[in-house]
Amino acid sequence: MDGLEKDPHGPKINLRAELIDHLGNRVLGMSRYEKPITIKSESLVIAVELKEDRESSMLAGLEKLFGTDPEMEFTTHNSYKIWFRKPAGEIIAPIDFDIPDMFNFDGVPSSVSTVQVKATAQVAAEEEDRPPAFPDGGVVMAKSCLFVSTNREYLKAILDRLDASAESANSTIGNELEYKEVDRIFGNMGLTNKPHFFQFFARAHETMRPTYEMIRKGQMAQSEAVFAKLLNELLSPDEESGVRRQILDGSTMPEFDRVQHYFGKVGIYGITEENGYFIKGFTIERNEK
C-alpha cells in the first residue's frame, strides 16, 4: 500500500481512501463453466456493493490505479469500462541501463556516472516476476458494484443480463425451484429471520463437474479455476514452475455422468450471534438419477 502511494513511478494512490473505503458490506459470488471441460472452462465473478453515491469516486480510483500501468488496458462493453491485463507478448519489458562514464563531466561528482535510469513500470529487482493468476480476468464498476472476474467473457455476459429488460432480469436464481427448496429448509430451521453474514447455494452435480473432470484427466494442476489455483499455492508454494505434479491419479475414475447423482443441492447459512458466529450447512439428495 505504501508503494502504490509513495513510489514516484507508481499510481500514487491511497488504496484505502480512494478504493477500499468506497466498498460496502454486501458481497456476491457467482460461478459457471462451459463445455467441453478444459483448464479454462470454469469462471468466477465477485461483486462487491458500493456505498451510496460512490460510483464516480470508484471510477476515478480505478482510473488512477490502472490508467498509467503499462501492463493494463481496457475495453468498453455496453458503456462499461473493463480493465484487464495485456497479453504477455504485448507488455513492453522494462529497461534498465547505466549512464556511461564518458558523460562524467568535469566538476560533476563521479557518483552520477553510476546512476541507473529505470523504466516507469519496472518493479524492484528482488521481486519475483510471477505470471498473473487469472490472465483472462477483468475488473469493472457497474450498477453500483465493483465486479472482479476470472474471465472477461463471463463478466460481459453478466453485464448484458443486468442491462436486459425487467422481464428477463427477474429470471434469477432466487426464482429457481431448487433454490426455493433450500431456502425453505433454512426457514423451517428458523434461520432466515436472524441476522446473517453468509448464504451459499449450489447444485453440487454442476459445481463439482469441472473439478472432477480435471482430476480425471490429470489436468487439475494446470486448471485456471480458483480452487485449482489455491491448491497450487498450498501444495507447491516453493516450486519455481507454476505447474505442479497432480497428486491424485484420476485415470480410473468413471465418467462424471455415471456418478453425478451422488451430488445433490447444497445450502450453507452463517448466523451472526452476540459472541461469535454459527454456521450450518446441509446437502439434499437429487430427485432424479
In short:
About 25% of the residues lie in helices and about 25% in strands. By secondary structure, it is an alpha+beta fold.
How would you describe the overall organization of this protein?
The protein has about 290 residues and is of the alpha+beta class. It has a domain at about 1-170. About 25% of the residues lie in helices and about 25% in strands. It contains nine helices and eleven strands. A four-stranded antiparallel β-sheet has the order 1-2-8-7, with helices on both faces. Strand 1 (about 25-35) and strand 2 (about 40-50) form a beta hairpin. The radius of gyration is 24 Å and the shape is globular. The relative contact order is 0.12. Residues about 95-125 have low confidence and may be disordered.
The total strand number stands at 11
Principal-axis shape equals globular
Our count of helices gives 9
Low-confidence stretches: 96-127
Give the tags:
289 residues; alpha+beta; four-stranded antiparallel sheet; three-stranded antiparallel sheet; 25% helix; 26% strand
Secondary structure elements and pairings:
Elements: H1 2-6, H2 15-18, E1 23-33, E2 42-50, H3 55-66, E3 72-77, E4 80-85, E5 96-98, E6 116-118, E7 138-142, E8 145-149, H4 152-162, H5 166-169, H6 177-188, E9 196-203, H7 204-207, H8 209-217, H9 226-235, E10 265-273, E11 276-284
Antiparallel strand pairs: 1-2, 2-8, 3-4, 5-6, 7-8, 9-10, 10-11
